[in-house]
Each structure stands twice: as structure tokens, then as C-alpha cells.
User: Fold these one by one.
Assistant:
Number 1:
Amino acid sequence: MKNKDIQIRDPFVLPDPAAGKYYLFGSTDANIWGPGTGFDAYAGDNLDDWEGPFPVFRPPAGFYSDTNFWAPEVYAVGGRYYMFATFRRKDNGRLGTAVLAADGPLGPFAPHSPAPVTPESWTSLDGSLYTDESGRPWMVFCHEWQQIGDGEVCAVRLSADLKEAEGELVTLFRASEAPWTTPFVSPRYPDTVNYVTDGPFLFRGPSGSLYMLWASFIDNTYALGVARSESGDVLGPWIHQPEALYRNDGGHGMVFRAFDGRLLLTIHAPNRTPEERPLFMEIEERDGRIGLAEI
């Protein structure tokens, strides 16, 4: 399959240099806004040609969600593979990020955390694993705008086994604090001022600076921005780049190192179902900022 053949949102690439394979995960239900069937993945030795789809997760009997299976991110930790993914709970209808686990990158993944590790009373999504320089795992996630109006990016420490949250929740920033975002006008909430946070992802630039990708809207068009931690730590403070990195109706990105050494960004674009496709772009660090590579 080619990229143009793969309908996917929230793409996430796990490179496996030893095997010479890239594994592509994402929200893969044809209608991700409705009942969910699980997650599929793709494998390839380049970023143009893919094998699959491979069914890497199907919910077992009694699973706590049957709708809105979103944004799987897969990490290799201690010889196993852990998937952070968002589900809508059956018991209270709220979104939350849970952790699944498998022995291989193509699964099958099974529930690892007993339930979503985000707060039960919050509508939360897009949890992303970050390991600090002391080796402690954190989850960075969004407290959704639909619940609070001005969406937040939050962080919480996780237990060493990645099964539950530990310690105090910290709000890193609100969507309206970034200079590039504008209010999101939703037909469902026409009388409120909303700012969206989506898809946080942390990575180190070549200089060692800690950056975060996250998505929002500019004039109701999906866009991707970048913030930099002034302290170099997950708790920030986070300084936003004044302009969006990508503003052409695409976002929810992550960054990975290609086998040829390039630093690559992947996003989905356009932000319309069923037209969304994976898009890959080279990025670079210039003067303390992240930008698209100059070709």
C-alpha cells in the first residue's frame, strides 16, 4: 500500500533499526467518530510502501469502551511494547487514555492498565509517554476543550510499571496562551469561546532542547504548533513559537529519526474524514526553534 491508500488519523511511527522496519500506527476505524473496532498497523522498510493492515488490537469481552478508539502511540520499553491510546468509557461517556501491552510491535495488544490512567471525571485524550532524564515515566495529555472551554496540556508521573498515575497532575499550559491559536467555533457549542488542544508529543532537538508538538486551530483550520521547555524539563515553563509549524489543515504530529538520519515529522492531512492520510516532512532545529527543513 502507498500513503495515498491509507486512511489514518493521528499517525505514529515506531522505527526498528535492528529489523530495518518502520511500524505505522494511528486511528484507523473508517469512521472514528462512531463505534470502534480497534487499531490496525502497517509495516514497511521505507515510508512510501507499506504492508498491512495488521489487526494489532481488538477489544476483549467486557472491555470498558466500544467507541472512539483514538491516537495509539507505541513505545518499546524493557523488552515489551506499550500502547498509549484513547477510548470513550462506557460507564460515564468520558474520554481517557489507557495503556495496552504486547510482546511485539504488531501485537496483539491487550489491556495493561486496569482502566484509563487519566482522571475518571475528566474528558482527557491523546496521552503520550515521556521518560525524563532520571528515567521516570510521565504521561503528557490533553484535558479536552469540550469539558473546560480552553483546552489544557497536562502532565502526570506514572508508576514504573506504567499501570497508573502517581503524584499530582500539573497543567503545563492552556491553548489560548499560544500566540498562533484562534478560538474554535463549534456548531455544537456556538455560544462559547473554545480553544483546542490535541496530540502533545515531546522530543529532544539536536541541541538537546526539549520541544513539544501540539495541535489546535487557526480560523477553524487544523494546525500544528511547537513549544520549547525553558528548563529542559517536562514541567517547563513552555515557550510557544509565535507561528504555527504547519497550518494547512493537518496536525496531530510526532517526530522520529529516519534510518538515513533525517529528523522527520508525520501528521495526518487533511483533517477531514475519510480523506485523512499520513504525511511525512523533514524538520530541523534553527536558533532554538523547530521548522520545516529548507530544501
Number 2:
Amino acid sequence: MQESIIISFQNVMKRYDEDEEPVLKGVSFDIERGKFYTLLGPSGCGKTTILRLIAGFAEPTEGTITMEGKVMNRIPANERQVNTVFQDYALFPHLNVFENVAFGLRVKKLKKPVIEQKVQEALRFVNLAGYGNRSVSEMSGGQRQRVAIARAIVNEPQVLLLDEPLSALDLKLRTEMQYILREMQQRLGITFIFVTHDQEEALAMSDWIFVMNKGRIEQSGTPNDIYDEPINRYVADFIGESNIVPGVMIEDYLAEFNGRRFECVDAGLRPNEPIEIVIRPEDLEIVPLDQGKLRVRVDSQLFRGVHYEISCYDESGQEWLVHSTRKAEVGGEIGLYFDPEAIHVMRFGETEEEFDRRLEAYGEVEAHGK
């Protein structure tokens, strides 16, 4: 195992009830040290179950979980170098801020001067110096969250698990805490594993994202990978807004949709293979009709602050969503232009494993042809 890998799941299946479908279905992945990972997906997809398995709050039904090369399947939670920040923060309301942060250190029976030093350092780290005597019930949601983080990091874990810790915050505070969490992770240099159903949150904070669906990982990669190269319709729909239309791959770098052929940058599919085309709304440019690759009629328009969100329909009835700084006339016709790089080609229902195998096979064919 590579030294950089701190946690590894190998074909992990989790079933809570023998008569029910597994919550996790043969999940495999590696977690490297010092990075910010996000488990992204809707409720019930298995992301919190993964956190529980890492923390030791649950055991896998099948498969192996290792930490630093050691099998952890039956290792109790209190023997793992892992701490968790829960959605409701799980603070003790009868204890002040200092005592909440110090709780784990007192359980370890550390000496009083050591506890004092470590707690004050943790509070300074989360910008709560001087708040030690404050009652947690008197604090804002963002402050309580930082107390929960201080309580977690004071124990110097190798991995910090965060289970939707921003979901109860209002939009402004949530955005502020995204910056704070990302900065904390980079300053601490420890591994963060963050659970959310919010794709904007995942894209903003992560080094690496696992997109989950029904107990499986649909796709994993950097935020740019996930956004620019979705593996299938599920990921394209879940990560941001997308225009997804059916088409045919004519040949390498040439796709057909809406009755016309367009140059693209994708290759490796069979000639005349059915495909789905993804074009992001921000990659569509409003131009005069004679300059457009698509001719559409504007149906509605909303101002979103930094851009207009414009809904259009082409002659076939296909809807196109456009994000533009230019205002359009509702009911009027406009042209839409896009570069070949804006076209992303997907196979129907393709998984990440199938995608990897196809790329590998295509590379071998190219090498053999040369």
C-alpha cells in the first residue's frame, strides 16, 4: 500500500437488515493523507454509512476497511485516530465552551496544565480565543460549529469526519464557514472527509469528490473533473445545471445532435454509437441568428445577480438553458454559439469502471495501430 494512503475500502458492503437492500454495494476507494474529500449525494445514498464505518460506529457486512495498512473491521471507535463533527454538533449544553472542548482530554486523564494549553490552542485556531467561559446555548450556529470542530481537533486526529455540519446554517453563514473549514484543513494538514448533498459546497471545498448513488460511487475525481467530464446523466444532472440531449457519435471528434453534425473533442466510441451530449449553460453564447449553431426561441428569463438564466426551445421542442450576462427578449429568437470544447459526450448509463475500461482499451488500440 502506498504510504500516502491512510484509509482504504475494498469491496465493502453494508446491510443493516438481511431482508433489505444493502446500504453500500461493494464500495472501493482510497483516501490519501492531508486532503479534503467530499462524499456527495442525495439522502439515503450511503455517504453517512461510510463515515460511520470509518469512525467505528458500524462494521461492514462484507469487505475490508484498512487504516494505515491495518484492518479496522472490528477495531472499536475509541481506538481509532478519528473524530467526528456531527450535523447537530452534539455539544454538551450544561458545559461551557472550555469544558466542551476539554471533554475528550479529560477522558484521557491528561494533566490540567496540558489540557489548558491544548484547549486554548484549539480555540485560537477556530477564532474563539476568549470564549472559554461562554455558554454554548448563547452562541450562534457558526460559533457552535467551531466549538464542535475545536473539540474534534484538540484530540489531534489523523482524520476528521464531518457529517453535513453546515446544513442548519443560513446561506451567508454557510458560505463563510466553507472558507473557514477549507482554511482549517489546509492549516492543520490532516485529512477531512466531508458529507453533503450540496453540489456547490462540494465543488467549492474539495480536493476530491465521490459522487454517490444508491450505495455505489458513480464517479470520483477533482471538482473540475466531476463538473467538466461527468461520467453519465446522473452525475451531469447532480453536479450543476446541464443541457443533456440525445445524439450519435459519427466518428472520433464528430458528434451529431439536433439534426446537425458538430466538431467535438471526444473520441474512443464506436462509429454511429448512440450517445448523450452535455453542454453547460454558461458555455452557450448568445449571438445573432446567422452566427449561431442553434436557433432557439426565448421562453423565459430570470435575473440571478451575476447572470441572466434564460430558458429557450429549439424547433424540435428541446429546451436549452443559458446563463448569460446579456439580456434576451422573451418571445424573440436568438442564436446560440458554443465551442467544440463545450461539448461533452457520454455513453448511456456508463459507470466509472466502464469508462476507465473503455479509455484503457482505446489507448491500447491506438498504441497497436501506431
